């Protein structure tokens, strides 16, 4: 009887220890599998979030595409062909007469040819004299309210003279 009891205790203990080992091995592989699945889920969520951002940007670009088409048409109206820049001096003289501004104009430097997505331009210098109000109105007409030429004024040198003010400025007129 004592032998049977010892054998049963050893067999029971072996079963319990074996069960614990089997449970441990199964738990180890199950937790590794679960960690792998959790990482995959996190990566998929990150991919979904990135795709949502990209789709939002695409929707915004499509919405802005219609606006940009209008601006592109307006820019093309302002970007004259290079051979029409010969009229630029006459246009400036007409504005100067209207604003009662004395003006000396000359193209300076060489032209920069248009690129695929960028317009070409020619630099110019402008020497104007008159009252401060007339000069500021003339400069606004040139740079901000022109319906024919796209002009950017870069530098200004303002001095006071006998009849008012004198401004020497450099700028660029753009063409296609």
- Unreliable stretches: none
H-E string: HHEEHEE
What does the main sheet amount to? Answer: 4 strands, antiparallel
The assigned structural class equals: alpha+beta
- Beta percentage is 15-25%
Rg from alpha-carbon coordinates = 40 Å
Q: Rough shape?
A: rod-shaped
Instruction: Note the gap between the termini.
Output: 110 Å
Number of continuous helical runs: 3
What strand line-up does the widest sheet have? 1-2-4-3
Count of individual beta strands: 4
What oligomeric state do these chains adopt? single chain
- Give the proportion of residues in helices: 55-70%
Overall average residue pLDDT: 83
Question: Can you give a write-up of this model?
Answer:
The chain is α+β, with helices and mostly antiparallel strands and 176 residues long. It is built from 3 helices and 4 strands; from the N terminus they run H-H-E-E-H-E-E. The chain has helices spanning 2-78, 88-99, 132-143; strands at residues 102-107, 120-130, 150-161, 164-175. A 4-stranded antiparallel β-sheet has the order 1-2-4-3. A hairpin with a 2-residue loop joins strand 3 and strand 4. Helix 2 packs antiparallel against helix 3. The chain is rod-shaped, with a radius of gyration of 40 Å.
């Amino acid at each position: 009887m004592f032998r049977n009891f010892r054998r049963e205790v050893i067999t029971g203990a072996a079963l319990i220890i074996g069960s614990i080992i089997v449970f441990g091995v199964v738990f180890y592989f199950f937790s590794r599998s679960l960690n792998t699945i959790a990482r995959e889920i996190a990566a998929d969520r990150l991919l979904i979030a990135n795709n949502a951002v990209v789709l939002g940007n695409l929707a915004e670009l499509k919405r802005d595409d219609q606006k940009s088409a209008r601006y592109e048409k307006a820019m093309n109206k302002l970007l004259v062909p290079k051979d029409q820049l010969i009229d630029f001096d006459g246009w400036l003289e007409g504005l100067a007469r209207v604003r009662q501004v004395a003006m000396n104009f000359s193209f300076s430097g060489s032209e920069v040819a248009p690129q695929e997505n960028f317009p070409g331009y020619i630099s110019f210098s402008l020497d104007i004299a008159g009252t401060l109000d007339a000069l500021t109105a003339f400069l606004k007409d040139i740079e901000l309210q022109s319906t024919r030429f796209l002009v950017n004024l870069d530098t200004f040198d303002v001095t006071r003279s006998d009849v008012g003010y004198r401004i020497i400025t450099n700028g660029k007129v753009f063409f296609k």
